[in-house]
Amino acid sequence: MLQVREEICIGCGLCALLCPQRAVSIVWDKAHIDEAKCTNCYRCQEVCPRGAINEEIKAISLDELKLVFQNLEEEVNKTMQRLKKLGIRKGGLSNGNYKGLD
Q1: Is 15 exposed, middle or buried (0-12, 13-18, 19+ CB in 10 A)?
Q2: CA–CA dist 95, 102 (Å, integer)
């Protein structure tokens, strides 16, 4: 999601004028982005003369990251077991070679 750094924004209105979704408005001399309308086309970011519009970066904790990869590993293992049940061996799907499906 894009966000406006209000301390940098000068309220010139270029972003609001050129937003194809009309997601940007100028309120109290600062740009504001309506998240419901914004499609992340980045047009506002491209035209901002001050560089006041940036993509919001969300940090996640190490525990959250571990959980994501743990879930991914579990899904990969489930998929590999399904492939084994079908008789497909490791490396059998590369280059159109379907070992075990003949």
Answers
A1: buried
A2: 15
Cα angle at 23 between 21 and 28, to 5 degrees?
145
Q: Where are the domains of the chain?
A: 2-55, 62-90
Predicted TM-score of the model (pTM): 0.57
> Which are the contacts of 89, defined by CB distance < 8 A and separation ≥ 6?
99, 100
pLDDT of 70-91, one tens digit each?
Answer: 888 888 889 988 888 887 665 5
Residue 64 identity (one-letter amino acid): E
CATH number of 2-55: 3.30.70.20
Residue 74 burial by Cβ neighbours in a 10 Å radius (0-12, 13-18, 19+): exposed
